[in-house]
Amino acid sequence: MVSNLVLEKLTEEVEKLYKTPTQEWVDDSVTDHDRKILKKEAEQESPFDKLNLKSKLNNSLNQGNANIIVKRNENGRVVILRENKHQNEQYPWEMWARIFQWFGVPKDGGVWQLYLYSSEVKRVLPSDGPIGAEHLNGGYTYPCKSDCIVIYRYEEATRVLVHELLHAACTDDDNKPVELREAATEAWAELFLVSLMSKGSVKKAYKLWKIQDHYIQDLNYTVRNFHHVNKLEDYGSRYTILREYVFRKFGVKLDSNYTPKRVTISRFTTPELDKYLL
Questions:
Q1: Can you give the pTM of this predicted structure?
Q2: Cβ-proximal residues to 264 (8 Å cutoff; 6+ apart), any chain
């Protein structure tokens, strides 16, 4: 077993977290401000939402084919816009409560405010050629601000939430280029997520990290060899191959005995771990 002291330390903190009561969710009402934000974020041009997923969902709302769910607890408030035909979507409310609880009260006061456009469009790689935001991205936020975290895919919403909360919590090193800032945030997000899934068990954390470790290697192998992602300037590097550099800086070694394989999906966390969210 490859030692991962960072994961162990995070898992110890999760163990403490899970010994405290869960912050309970209560139903909340959608406000005029919520509707304005949903409309504003859907209509403005985004360098990340190349498929206009937010706009499509907002249009569905205007046509009566989508609805809004709002819940809040002590540290977080969640507004979900989803298609009426997707009423059976499951959201990991307990996990989200623990995530908001772990991040604590925002420095600017109030609560962490999430707007989730719950699009069913998944991340997939093109058959060949370069990859861009339309294949990779699922959310964004405004650095050091807690009032507008935006996610626009149902898939991997929890991982994206952790990633964007790290940005919103002012963890970025502004002395580094954006590629390395994003890579560091993504690396931390995956370590945070696995430690949370373990619910404080170091043994389970190592088991889950091994699964994720192999998937990281699969995705990196694929983008390097079939999509020409090999250097800092290649857009996809910030979410894929640059993680290896960040992990080495953390002292986290990937499994050198594993032989990676080609994948066709471009999500960052393996779907094998989804069942541990609920």
A1: 0.97
A2: 124, 125
